[in-house]
Task: structure prediction
Amino acid sequence: MVWLLRYVACQLDTDGNLVDEFSLGGSDFDIPYSIIQTQDNGYLLTGSAIVKPGGNLECNMHEQADAMLIKLDPELNIEWQNAMVGAIMTGLPI
Result:
C-alpha cells in the first residue's frame, strides 16, 4: 500500500468556481492542517511533512516528519517555508 498525501491549495471565485489550484508536498507523507488568508492576499499553511527529493517543499531530509509553515503569495507561489525539524505529526493551528 502506498500513501501519498499532499497539500492542495485552491482559489475559488465568489460563485465557488475554481480559479486556480496548486499542489505542495514532497514524494512522501504530507498532511495539511490549516490555512488562512494573509493581509497581502496570500496564504499561510501549516502541516506536517516527511520531505524527500521529488517535491516542492524543503527541509533537512532526515526521514522524520517535520511541522511545516508555508507562505504563499496571491498567485500561489511559495514565498517562504519553515520546517520545525522532528516535530512529528504535531500540526500547528493558526
Observations:
- The longest strand covers residues 30-37.
- Residues 7-84 form one domain.
